């Protein structure tokens, strides 16, 4: 049982997927694991939301997929960032920074 | 969008989602096993984290299908962009082909677009009236012939019906002398009841229309101007409202100006004034001069209106047996009456010009086939690289569409130019034709015509090229797609179609030309050469007295005769080919009075020299002279046709006929027949002569000056150029009264030819279209035969080497070339005989299945086809066998 959980803030899943894929192509499970590891287990990806998000992002043209081979030699669907996805990542990062700064300004005020 | 779920490639998305989710669950399970879970617990934990797996699966499938659709669209668009770019480069690389093909198409597309614009303006565009479909024309019929409505019948009908919204409205077309500072001018106008504009559903552009009380006698001095007159005569001045203008010697206050689009009758009125029926007028059931309109109420039907009108008519037939004995009413939709048969004539032209476009498509298809032969290698490479047949067909169709759209751009220029020519050359009176222009609707039509033609000319070549064998293409290099010479069905099919289509056009043109020749040969019964005609009207205000009217016209006849160059001059109420000439019922003496015994005849009031000016022969008896004075023995001259109708088998000279007026005591007024004049075709050469009779002006019934509105024709005979006399004649009339404008001045030859204007215009257009179609077909035949000869160079070389003479080679090629021509002619004759029925009402003295015309057209077409194939045939005969054999 995971001892720490954090609900993903609305919309941040997409930004996290984009950020993860910016480091190279990955299949869906690897994306989930990468996010969990990068946040030290603070963020637990809900698998049931991950895949619809990936398909939606594919439809929007931010990521594309192809069939490849996983690290264990299994056939797996690998996702890759597109140039449009890279622009989207930049936009979402900037938006997050603005949002986080605003929230911090309130919550951390002395 | 739902239909996509039914598509067969649904499966890949399903498999994709299943594979991906299964893989994920396996990886999660493995993760928990590594953390020390039992296999079953690890599996359960993985599934817990996924949640409702079916829901996830369904969501992913839906999203995946959306993604695939989007991908296909993007791919399609990018392929289309590539194809368009490629097509454009192809055209620039082969400018000769592109130019010939697009000019050929531009001719067809431009022509169809121009005629479409005309059809749109005249027929399709809705009238600028509220709900035009409910507007009706109410007319009388008399012995089965439509007739205008009398004031009495109008008044009684209006009182007896409820089907029309706001009642019926009546209009009397009349002309006005407009004297307003500048030179006096004769204009056409309508005298209308006050509800006229409300019934028609038209609003003024400026000011107001008539108030309900303005059509009472004494209150009618207001006028509504047409946009045209306002622009032309008053310089579009906004200060025109409430100003007084002088017409027919009286003052009228300008109430309003109608918009330019309000131009709805072929009479082209320029002003409207209220018609003020006096009680006496309203009781008058004879004298039919009103055009009557009514707007059907929302819940009324034509049938109900007709039933109500029939009830009125039956009352009128009983109450006024003399005037209305055979009266019935008809109700015709205004739109039908307005467009008349111009709609049909224009559609015939649109059909003809579409046939030209089809022939042009045939030629371009042939050009594409010829170019396709050179592109066999390119197609082979594409196919080898994995392009499917449909992909290649699509690319060729895109090229065709690009070509056709370029042609449409050029075609629009051509359309603008030819539409201007059509409008300028069209016969007068085609409603709204001058409003035709190359507008967005025409643009849309041109684009649609281009896309449809691109499929017509592009599809067959594209299918043929896409099917050509890959290996043959690669091996034979640039000479890829060959088909078996004269056994090439597609190319011979093109010849068959082009010959058939151009025969159709030529046959139509031929029939109209034969009609035109027949019309030219008709003897009108008078000599139109060297005659000048002009009209003049005396205003009622200053010429009230009949005696003064007669004296003035007589002075005018004398003054006209004195003009240098004039040999004889005459005054008449009704010149041939002019307007006017109402019908009168004549009763020969001794025949009992009954409607069926009345002989209908057209009256012409003349001065004695009329027959000499017109050179109408007197068959018997004498003409009018000084003996026929006012107050003397009343006399008349009858036409030969009237003589035969009124006095069959008898000598009419000295017999008496009652007509036109009654004696003061109410008894019939008889006139003695003193002469018989030759028949004339007054309504134009196409219309057979009707019964006519002549009265001397000195003895004209006093009422006649009301029927004619004191408007008469001056006709003079002047050897040499009668047109040159216009100015001297004008001056001679101005010396009698400077306020009287001479109008409608034309030579009799001009009148005669304008009565044939519609026929001539259609003949001219169809002949041009037939000629263009023939030239296109000839170049198509030439192209195909030249291609066949080039394909058979080797075979012909062998034949010549084996001793075939040039004559034999030419005969061989011609025989084979003529096969599709003969087949096309046979098909074309069938189609032409079926289609020529649409011309029936435009033909004169020619049957729509006239064998002589068919023969002439087939001979013309055959000769042209023979000449077109003779050029390549002679080239075949000149083939050098050694070179031909070496080339292989």
Largest interface: A-B, 19 and 25 residues
**Percentage of residues in helical conformation of chain A:** 40-55%
Average of the residue pLDDT scores of chain A: 86
Radius of gyration of chain B: 39 Å
Radius of gyration of chain A: 15 Å
Q: Which of globular, elongated, flat, extended, rod-shaped describes the shape of chain B?
A: globular
State the oligomer: heterodimer
- The largest sheet of chain A has its strands arranged as 1-3-2
Shape of chain A: globular
Structural class of chain B, by secondary structure, is alpha+beta
How is the biggest beta sheet of chain B arranged? Answer: 12 strands, mixed
Low-confidence stretches of chain B: 1-10, 473-485
Q: Terminal Cα separation of chain A, in Å?
A: 36 Å
Category by helix and strand content of chain A: alpha+beta
- Tell me the β content of chain A: 5-15%
Q: What is the number of helical segments of chain B per DSSP (H or I, 4+ residues)?
A: 28
Question: How would you summarize what this structure contains?
Answer:
The complex is a heterodimer of chains A (about 110) and B (about 900). With about 110 residues, chain A is of the alpha+beta class.
